[in-house]
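User: Can you model how pantoate sits in this protein?
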Amino acid sequence: MKIIRSLAELRETLSVRDKVRSLVPTMGYLHEGHASLIRDARRESEQVCVNIFVNPLQFNNARDFETYPVSEDHDRAICEEAGADIVFVPTASEMLGAGPALQMAMPALTKNLCGPFRPGHFEGVLLIVAKLFHLFLPHKAYFGKKDYQQFRVIQRMVEDLSFPIDIIGCETIREADGLAMSSRNKNLKPEHREQAALMIRGFRIAEKAFNNGNANPADLAEIAQDVMLTGPDNRVEYTQVVDPETLEVLQEIEGDFVIAAAMHCGEVRLIDNLLIRGG
Ligand code: PAF
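Assistant: Here's the modeled complex, given as C-alpha cells:
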C-alpha cells in the first residue's frame, strides 16, 4: 500500500488509467463503515484508492472542524487491512493552496434536510469531490448512504457534468443497537451513547406505523421525532420524509420514501436516515 502526500506524486502514480480504478473519499478517523466501502471497492475494481482529507470548505462550524477526530496510524491500518492500494493524505495547503475561487452549488437538492442548517456545507463537498474526481480519474466512487443527501448531490453532479464515474451508494453500517457508524460517534459522552440510538429506533417505529396503515408523512416524522426526544439530551434539528430522488418533502406517500433526521445528542450532531419501501 502506497501513501502519497503530494498532488504531483498522485498525478504521476495515476497517470495511466489502465485498470478499473475506484476511489473511496473520506475525512479520516476511519471505522467499519469506511472499511466496508474499501472492501466493496476491492471486490469490484483492480486499483483501490482512498483519500483522507478533513475538508475545511465543508465545515460551517469552527468547533466541529476543530474537534473532528484525526488519527493517521489508525486510518492507515484500516486501509491496509481492507485492501487499499493507494492512500492520499494531503495537507490543506497542498490540496487547496490559498483557497478556491470557484463556487459550486446545487440548490434544488440542498433546500431541505441538512441544507438550511449547514450553509456552505454541500458547496464545500461538491467542490472537493469534483476536485478529487479530476485528480484520481476513478471509474467508480464509493459513498455511504448514511449521508443520503450527500450521496444524491454527488450522484447528480456526476450526471450534470457527465463525469465517466459510477457512483456507488453503500448501505449504512450500524452498531449492534442500530446506531449508524460515524467518525463523530467518538465524541459522544458515555452517558449519551444510548440516547444516540433513539434516532434509528424512531425511524423503525415510524416504519412500523407506515406498515400498519399510517401513510401521512407529517405523522410519520412526528412519530420518529417523539421517540428521539425521549432522550433528555437529544435536540432534534429536523425530521423529514422526502422523495428518495428529488429530496422534496412529501405531502403524501406514493412509493418508496426516505425518513431522515439530524439530532444533537449532547454536543454531537448526528444524522441518519432510513429508506422505507412504499409499495
Ligand atoms: O463524507 C465525507 O466524509 C466527506 O463529505 C467527503 C465525501 C469525503 C468529502 O470531503
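A couple of observations from the model: The chain has two domains: 2-170, 183-273. The first strand starts at residue 2 and ends at 4.
User: Helpful, thanks.
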